[in-house]
Amino acid sequence: MVLTKDVSLPSEEELTVQEVEVSTPGLRAAAFHMGKACENANNEFMLCRQEYKDPRQCLNEGKAVTACSLDFFRKIKKNCAMEFTQFANCLDRSSSDFSFSPCRKTQAVFDKCMLDNLNMERPYFGYFSEVKVHHTERPRPEGIKKPEYPDTPVPVPDDLPLSPAKFGKRVFS
């Protein structure tokens, strides 16, 4: 994006928020639970960024993501601080790439604490890879229209007779 005199940048007060001061092992330890807890705020922010293609339009959504993260870590500190610290320390000290595999026992203890105290179950494997539709209260920005593809081929009719495959089927049973 080219900046000219017509571009208005947000003020320092608009950009200033309290930061989430958590280390890399701490973020890795809480990533799955935080992703689930702040899923709505994250999806709202990413939808805004995708629609507007201008981060200045999505400052409030970004602040909501940061506020959700701060609130999440405050809940962990209040209810599961010891289990979280042990899991984060295990991730930090057991491997050079913060691998989860050497820390499954401390992970299980942390997951149990999150389930018992905060009623937050660790999402199953593949949860964040699933396609989900996000519904928003924010109005759709002006100027967004569905893309048109003029070179789209004509669909094949369902009743078209098919000749047998030249070299047989590819079904292996």
TrEMBL record:
<dbReference type="InterPro" id="IPR016680">
    <property type="entry name" value="NDUFA8"/>
</dbReference>
<keyword id="KW-0249">Electron transport</keyword>
<feature type="region of interest" description="Disordered">
    <location>
        <begin position="138"/>
        <end position="173"/>
    </location>
</feature>
<keyword id="KW-0472">Membrane</keyword>
<dbReference type="GO" id="GO:0006120">
    <property type="term" value="P:mitochondrial electron transport, NADH to ubiquinone"/>
</dbReference>
<keyword id="KW-0677">Repeat</keyword>
<comment type="function">
    <text>Accessory subunit of the mitochondrial membrane respiratory chain NADH dehydrogenase (Complex I), that is believed not to be involved in catalysis. Complex I functions in the transfer of electrons from NADH to the respiratory chain. The immediate electron acceptor for the enzyme is believed to be ubiquinone.</text>
</comment>
<keyword id="KW-0496">Mitochondrion</keyword>
<keyword id="KW-0813">Transport</keyword>
<keyword id="KW-0999">Mitochondrion inner membrane</keyword>
<comment type="similarity">
    <text>Belongs to the complex I NDUFA8 subunit family.</text>
</comment>
<keyword id="KW-1015">Disulfide bond</keyword>
<keyword id="KW-0679">Respiratory chain</keyword>
<dbReference type="GO" id="GO:0005743">
    <property type="term" value="C:mitochondrial inner membrane"/>
</dbReference>
<protein>
    <recommendedName>
        <fullName>NADH dehydrogenase [ubiquinone] 1 alpha subcomplex subunit 8</fullName>
    </recommendedName>
</protein>
<feature type="compositionally biased region" description="Basic and acidic residues">
    <location>
        <begin position="138"/>
        <end position="149"/>
    </location>
</feature>
